[in-house]
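Hi F.,

I've been meaning to write this up properly since the lab meeting, where we talked about keeping a consistent format for the predictions we share between groups. The idea is simple: the sequence comes first, exactly as it goes in, then the structure tokens exactly as they come out, then a line or two of notes. No screenshots and no reformatting. I'm using this chain as the first example so we have something concrete to point to.
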Amino acid sequence: MKQARQGACKYVDIGGQAVMEGVMMKAPDAIAVSVRRPDGTIVTKRSPYQPLSKKHPWMGWPFVRGVVNFVTMLTMGMSVLQQSTDMLGILDEEPSKFEKWLSKKLGKGIDKIVMGVAVVLAVVLSIGLFFVIPEIFARLLKNVITSPSSNWLINLLSGLLRILILIGYILFCTMVPDVRRTFQYHGAEHKTVYCHEHNLPLTPENARGFSTLHPRCGTSFLLIVFVLSIVLFTLVGYQGTNFLWRLLSRLALLPVVAGVSYELLKGLAHHDNLLTQALRWPGMQLQRLTTKPPTDEMLEVAIVSMNVALHGLPKDCPKTTEGFTVVQDYRLADPSYTPPQPETGEPQPA
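Output, unedited:
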């Protein structure tokens, strides 16, 4: 029988994200990123974190906090992905002359420039895939379905296309080996979060038995956003034939959709009855595409991140030249773990 861990901290919601060969865990006051390097060692980093709602209380208001969280996780997600790549220690190439020139002209490090370009490209790709293409499809439908009362049908069909594009995009990503490994780390993150929520000792054996599907997952959030957008775009969105106005009205409503979706996600995650189970079921099933069963080695990395986020960096562990903490044994990140002492035999007579 599994026993509750001794001296466990008070339960708090822990968020996370899979990164390159590792996992990020976000506690209320800190963020930990841990990765497994090619040599098998785990390196981890802990950074203090203060929610924007602490500085600006209005950002913690219901519905507003959903928009703030959406933007924060988007920017934080790109940042920790870059951090995990740096922590792996596999990108030691000398910047090209063009990269050096660009860095000098812009006055920023090349890593920040690359991350900035990546964010811009990601936003452009997202708008193109999930807004422009569905609106082009909706415009074509308006030429075929001319009934004045057909707006709900057109919005429904364009919304379903948006969801199909999301599923197709995820399926395409699963064909990339590195992305598939990231989905395994995503599964490790969920299993470790479940283990923490059940107040069990954080070990691969305990975490292994939990599901890779979690009700607070960002994948579920995305599906809620897409479904809710169909309703809001129909009720308050621009329904005319002007393509640009339709597109702009959908983009303008996105913060409203994100705010309502966040509250709905939290409500479904923290209540367990037949209704909430039915409503969160589609999002849980979509997670079957974005999470894969992890190995025990991946679970160890997720456990290190969880413990470091909650309790701080382990003591007496070596540091890399970059300042990252090296964890030779995942158990060292658990403050309640006592390493076995070397046996000292009785002195033998001369």
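Notes:
The radius of gyration is 23 Å.
The longest helix spans residues 110-144.

If this format works for you, I'll send the rest the same way.

G.
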